[in-house]
C-alpha cells in the first residue's frame, strides 16, 4: 500500500468503531490482545516475504517513530510537523489514543535501518526530551491502523 492509501483508511470511518472499542478497555493485557487480534497493520519500512527482519524484500526508506503515553500529544504533534531536520511524511494518533506514530523518510543506502533509528531516537531525546519506543528499531515492526480523522499526510503523497 502507498502512504495515501493508508492515510485514506486511517481518516475514514473504517477503523472508528474498533478504535473506540480498544480505547474503552482499561486492562493493559486485554487491550494488547485485542489490538493484536483485531487491528489491521502495515509495515511502513518495507515489503517482506513474511514479516520478520530476515525476510525483507525491499526497504521503503521510511522509518516509524512511535511515541507512547504522551501528556502533551497536541504540542508534540505541532513540534514534529515543524521539525527543522526531519520532514513528516505521515503523522497520526496511535490506536491507544495517547501516543503518536511519526513516519519520516530516511536513506538506508549508507546507514542501516537500525543505526538510523538509534540516531533519530537520540535526536528526539536531546531535542524534545522524550523517549522513543525502541520497537521501531525492527525493520519489520507492525504498525496497527487506528481511526484518526486529524492525521497528517505530506502533500506529495496525496492522491490526485
Please, could you describe this protein's structure?
- By secondary structure, the chain is of the alpha+beta class.
- 34% of the residues lie in helices and 19% in strands.
- It has 5 helices and 8 strands.
- The strands form 3 sheets. It has a 4-stranded antiparallel sheet with strand order 4-6-5-8, sandwiched between helices. A two-stranded antiparallel sheet has the order 1-7.
- A hairpin with a 7-residue loop joins strand 2 and strand 3.
- The radius of gyration is 15 Å and the shape is globular.
- The chain starts with a helix and ends in a 7-residue tail after the last strand.
Question: Topology of this protein?
Answer:
Blueprint (H helix, E strand, L loop, with lengths): L2 H9 L4 H9 L3 H11 L2 E2 L3 E3 L7 E4 L2 E6 L5 H9 L6 E6 L6 E6 L7 H16 L14 E2 L7 E2 L7
Antiparallel strand pairs: 1-7, 2-3, 4-6, 5-6, 5-8
Question: How confident overall, as mean pLDDT?
Answer: 93
Largest sheet: 4 strands, antiparallel
Shape: globular
Order of helices and strands: HHHEEEEHEEHEE
Q: Provide the spatial order of strands within the biggest beta sheet.
A: 4-6-5-8
Number of helical stretches of at least 4 residues: 5
Helicity range of the residues?
Answer: 25-40%
The N- and C-terminal alpha carbons lie at a distance of 16 Å
| Rg calculated over all Cα atoms | 15 Å
The count of β-strands is 8
β-strand amount = 15-25%
The parts where pLDDT drops under 50 for at least 5 residues are none
Based on helices, strands and strand pairing, what is the structural class? alpha+beta
Amino acid at each position: 500500500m502507498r502512504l495515501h492509501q493508508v492515510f485514506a483508511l486511517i481518516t475514514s470511518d473504517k477503523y472508528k468503531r474498533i478504535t473506540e472499542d480498544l480505547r474503552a478497555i482499561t486492562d493493559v493485557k486485554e487491550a494488547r490482545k485485542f489490538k493484536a487480534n483485531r487491528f489491521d497493520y502495515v509495515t511502513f519500512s518495507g515489503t517482506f516475504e513474511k514479516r520478520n527482519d530476515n525476510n525483507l524484500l525491499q526497504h521503503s526508506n521510511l522509518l516509524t517513530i512511535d511515541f507512547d503515553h504522551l501528556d502533551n500529544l497536541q504540542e508534540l504533534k505541532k513540534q514534529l510537523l515543524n521539525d527543522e531536520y526531519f520532514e513528516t511524511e505521515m503523522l497520526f494518533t496511535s490506536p491507544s489514543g495517547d501516543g503518536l506514530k511519526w513516519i519520516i523518510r530516511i536513506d538506508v543506502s549508507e546507514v542501516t535501518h537500525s543505526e538510523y533509528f538509534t540516531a533519530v531516537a537520540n535526536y528526539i531525546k536531546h531535542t524534545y526530551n522524550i523517549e522513543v519506543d525502541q520497537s521501531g528499531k525492527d525493520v519489520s515492526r507492525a504498525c496497527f491502523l487506528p481511526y484518526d480523522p486529524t492525521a497528517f499526510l505530506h502533500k506529495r503523497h496525496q492522491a490526485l
